[in-house]
């Protein structure tokens, strides 16, 4: 009985799937799906090497500090970094006094109640504060940015396919729209063409426009390529601040497991020796 | 427990003696996982994944309990509390990455364990109950994993919850009330997050309970083996401890090496970038995909593109997706071939190979965007999936002529006939 019902159900599901396949195939042949324009013009991120890549990867603090400078002088006007605190900057090589100074001199104050009146106001940042939000709320962010909210950058590296490669490609990928770009995909007013962006046009104007837009204190030449790389590296750190600890722990764990596994394998061989010996006689 | 020649537990210390009289836990462990469980001597490495799945369940429970100490199940702060674990909790990143990837390893182990059972006929008499309990464990694990994926409250969490609970909507009359009951509202929000967290914490212990029954049921007939031939005498078996504890032990090391590579060097390789964007009900991700271990079922769900008479395609897809797993409950009665092991079933072997490739194809299509040619491939692959269990297996048990079986496990291993005591 189970088998008869089973065969009937099986015939129904399999049969209807084959019929659906047939109808879909006819539809596909007579009316092939049109791929959206993005397919032809969208580009995969460029492959960029970062010091933190690979299982031996480590951060280059000099680079992270340069990247932080880009964030501070270029990105921070619109993009928040709400999951990172000023105190975290000590992890990339700033000392305590420097961190306190960076927090106190940050262009945007930290919202807080006035200790005398209780009125909401802003005060200078402290090391313990998270980076303040550039806009009071999403409505203000939209209003100031052509109706597009600048996304938070704390996790940007992990929140996009391609990670830091994608961020670098996007920052350096702005071009004029190609001549054969269909009308529908042309950038509208206030939008900018960038083949690395999912739908080709984004509201953010090219943020890194000219060489030496910032002046690096360590003497590195601030080419557009260099600035894009540095800020991408900085965003690897903001998204994955424990990367170095993770890599280090990984090697220690692997070394331990390798030794433990070899020992376990040898004891397995010893324990099974008598049973295996019997088995060998078969071959003789 | 299972065979008359099983070693008997004898307490060696006075305390052991005292304990054995009051609460014989050491005896229970000795008989279940120790020397008191005679196990076929010829088990191959496919028999290592049951204990591995159990160990990864323990890993999940331990890491999960620690995560729950720092996680906040509130839609406003859940996402940030996960980032708090990643950034501010000591070694929190390790615990969280181990938990996220541990789920994948649990499913890798469980899939290989199920595949082993399918090929070697471990679901056949007298082991039907072990198989049925195993399917229950799998269903519970799916529910647990799904609800766990919702907890970080990222974009994929939110939209995954919306899509999966939305499936119930397809059921006529009672579908909508069921969906609202599951979510505690009309869309995923705080009520849904809270009940998912509560159930995500509860279900692993239910799984542990069913595993105890799974092992209990296993110890009545004893383990199956690659020949599928019953154990006939003491020479056919070795004590579980130390033989299989040693074998499981060293392969556990190998599994943990792969696990560590993932946790420490590629922690997000199996995840989805969109889940690092906080949940936003107003912005739908371009491709909503579940975790990889659900992909084959997701492909079957999406393979139904045409209504059948008055049944809408969506309802068909939902019915098919649930049937694809529920069919396993009937497997012991669908496949009536008296031969257990696929090794001695020449035709079954071929169909089994096709099934494995078929499920891999389904998995690939389930992870791909819902567009052609993936939908058409899923339709063919799903058609074979149902045909395999519901048509091929019942017919094959009548049409196939199995190869001769060895007389005993010992004979198949050593070439010499088993000396029978009687």
Overview of this protein structure:
The complex is a heterodimer of chains A (284) and B (422). Chain A has 9 helices and 4 strands. Chain A has helices at residues 2-30, 37-41, 61-75, 96-104, 138-144, 156-159, 163-172, 224-239, 243-280; strands at residues 110-113, 120-123, 192-193, 201-202. In chain A, helix 3 crosses helix 8 and helix 7 (163-172) runs antiparallel to helix 8 (224-239). Chain A is extended and about 85 Å long. In chain A, 28% of the residues are buried. A two-stranded antiparallel sheet of chain B has the order 1-2. Chain B is globular, with a radius of gyration of 24 Å. In chain B, 46% of the residues are buried. The mean pLDDT of chain B is 95.
Distance between the termini of chain B: 20 Å
The major pleated sheet of chain B works out as:
2 strands, antiparallel
Task: Supply the CATH class of the largest domain in chain B.
Answer: Mainly Alpha
Enumerate how many helices of chain B there are, as a single number: 16
Please state the overall shape of chain A, judged from the principal axes of the Cα atoms.
extended
Name the chain pair with the biggest interface and residue counts per chain: A-B, 59 and 66 residues
The CATH top-level class label of the domain at 56-84 and 130-178 and 195-243 in chain A: Mainly Alpha
Radius of gyration of chain A: 29 Å
Q: How many DSSP E strands of chain B?
A: 2
CATH architecture of the domain at 56-84 and 130-178 and 195-243 in chain A: Orthogonal Bundle
